[in-house]
Specification:
about 375 residues; alpha/beta; Rossmann fold; 5-stranded parallel β-sheet; 4-stranded parallel β-sheet; 13 strands; about 15% strand
């Protein structure tokens, strides 16, 4: 049978998903198929093929599609997380009779967190804590450190506090604002985000897939973690890095000096080494490349995929900022429109006619002038 290789793609807005696939991509000699993580069987394959697929990630938005039925797939079950956030639907799906047979056939299961490890072992399914494949990301030797601080998916209060603590530029963005983009565009944007993670002076984030890549890329990172919000997803992972609750940092920002950040803990290195060995033995390949996959940052930023994705990201960000920062102007606009409507009624009474088209034009000009 012909040997083929697959890689996960995603129907989510979370760019952290593509970051996980970029980490797995390093261990593939080629990508013959993209499989939607939440609907693996939607991708049709040929009968005379054997497909290797690193099945890392978060499971699952569509528990009804688990386990996959494609007999051609010979998966590596590693860095898997089973969510508890859908009323137990994913847990029930993973502990079903068909799933047990699948997991035991291709196990043992490497779990991304210790809570998933315990869930499976308690159910009689052999599992071990592997950590996340993003811990294997390679730095790019051509990327130089710069003098900005990243604030990724943080609250307004935390962002303002960070700005008060430094003279450096604090660059703020979130990883959940990529809508209506292609797989190629999302991968390009994920590569760019990883470039930012590596080149930053340090990073402060609430996101798992900023925290862990920063460890791998050797960028000092502070994880802002609220244990009660998601007690299972970060289990075994949060202690790999420096971390505080938001309240702790706001009360005493000296606990993590963003101007002279402490080095990251090195406990992740043992997990990284084992993951590299596991993935390489499974596929027989490791290209050793960085997340830029042989490209320079200029080549990435000049690519059609990146330019298109960045344009959509800027548009979405602009719309959000416009709404948040021009609320008063919007209220003023509503007042002006109401005033114009009242004046129109007066003009009608006086025998003056104004077409709907003219009114629309006047409104459009008002928007242009004020926004």
């Amino acid at each position: 049978m012909k040997q083929r290789f697959g890689l996960f793609s995603y129907s989510t807005e979370n760019i952290g998903d593509e970051v996980q696939s970029i980490a797995a991509r390093r261990f593939l000699p080629k990508v013959d198929y993209y499989f939607d993580r939440d609907n693996i069987d939607a991708t049709k394959t040929k009968k005379d093929e054997k497909i290797k697929l690193i099945m890392n990630g978060w499971y699952t938005k569509k528990p009804e599609n688990w386990p996959p039925k494609n007999p051609n797939i010979n998966p590596l079950l590693v860095a898997m997380h089973i969510t508890r956030n859908n009323d137990g639907a994913s847990v029930n799906s993973f502990l079903s009779e068909k799933s047990r047979a699948f997991l035991k056939k291709f196990g043992p299961v490497g779990t991304r967190d210790t809570a998933t490890e315990k869930l499976l072992n308690d159910a009689g399914i052999e599992a071990y804590f592997s950590g996340c494949v993003t811990l294997t990301l390679n730095r790019d030797k051509k990327v130089k450190k710069k003098d900005f601080i990243l604030a990724v998916d943080v609250s307004d209060a935390l962002f303002e506090k960070l700005k008060q603590q430094t003279k450096r530029e604090v660059l703020r963005f979130d990883t959940y604002r990529l809508e209506n983009v292609t797989t190629e565009e999302k991968f390009a944007m994920a590569e760019y985000f990883l470039y930012l993670y590596q080149s930053a002076h340090c990073a402060v984030t609430t996101r798992l897939h900023v925290m862990l890549p920063c460890l791998a890329l050797q960028t000092p990172v502070l994880a802002i973690h609220e244990p009660e919000r998601d007690p299972t997803r970060y289990s075994g992972l949060i202690d790999l890095t420096n971390h505080l609750t938001e309240k702790e940092y706001l009360k005493n920002p000296k606990k993590y000096d963003i101007n002279n950040p402490p080095k990251n803990p090195e406990a992740y290195l043992a997990l990284r080494t084992k993951l590299e060995k596991t993935c390489k033995e499974y596929t027989g390949f490791d290209d050793g490349k960085s997340y830029l996959n042989g490209k320079t940052i200029d080549e990435l930023m000049n690519s059609a995929a990146f330019m298109s994705a960045f344009s959509k990201l800027v548009d979405a960000s602009y719309e959000t900022v416009l709404f948040e920062e021009t609320r008063k102007e919007i209220y003023a606009l509503e007042y002006e429109l109401a005033k114009t409507k009242a004046e129109l009624e007066e003009w009608k009474t006086a025998g003056v006619k104004m077409s709907a088209k003219s009114l629309a034009r006047a409104t459009k000009n008002y928007f242009k002038k004020h926004f």
